[in-house]
Amino acid sequence: MSRLGPIRWLVAVPMVLLALATIYPLLFTANVAMKTRREYILDRFSLASTLQWDNLSTAWNSVGMGRYFLNSVIVVACAVALLLLIGSMAGFALAQVRFRGSSALALVCLAALFIPFQVIMVPLARIMAGGGLIDTYPGLILAYVAQFLPFTVFLMTSYYRAVPTELVDAARIDGNTLYGVYRRIMLPMGAPALLSVGILDALFCWNDVLISLLMMPSADHRTLMVGITSLRGQYSADIPTFAAGVLIAGLPVLVTYLFLQRQIADGVTAGSTKG
After folding, report:
1. Where is the ABC transmembrane type-1 domain (predicted)?
2. For the purposes of burial, counting CB atoms within 10 Å of the CB of 83, is it exposed (0-12), middle (13-18) or buried (19 or more)?
3. pTM for the complete prediction?
4. Residue 251 has pLDDT above 80, yes or no
């Protein structure tokens, strides 16, 4: 135990510092959001003397954040549904179905993970504009699917590779088609992975700014994270109101992390399973 003590401290101290560095910006934003403009100008680092809840309502109503919030919910829900459907089917096919070129296709999906969005941004915008999908819900949904599908396919493939092939063979002998095996066996078995990957995909889509800004240029179709930028322009001198808007936009993500942190951790480590 005496030998393990210093080692534990060497691990614990950096982790505590990292946790504080992560939590501090959130606490600072929440404190600023509760201040008056005068308090912030006099001392931005002091604690708020009184809680200014009006800042939250001002941020919510001034730039139509309710509409932006609804836009984000619609786009994220549809994109995640498509990602899970296509990703689970592709993961099952790459992991359990034997066909020529499956290994090469799996490598292509893995390689797509390393392509930054900035590389495909201009071609994607031209394709979407040619199809009349700019400034539409389907356009942004398809852009999210195209961007995050390789990640979803990779994790679902890793998960399904851990399923014994004998189970699939037995189901085929019983007369199930490939679709029957997927629907009756693989889809229920993959529910934990689907939940974890779905949470991660939802967080990715919710926090996105660049893709949404590219695909939804008009004010009426902005997502919540992009709508925060208009709040910054309108209240450039009123930092507490802007901080209140940032706090509102970040609350869904914070709540998701607090209540589903185990599933998120499982999703992050799903790709490390040994098939």
Report:
1. 69-260
2. buried
3. 0.83
4. yes
Cα 274 to chain centroid distance, Å, stands at 25
Longest dimension (CA), the chain: 76
In three-state secondary structure terms, 240 is helix
Sign of CA dihedral 84, 90, 93, 95: negative
Q: Is the per-residue pLDDT at 271 higher than 60?
A: no
Residues 159-168: tens digit of each pLDDT: 888 888 888 8
Residue 156 gets which letter from DSSP? H
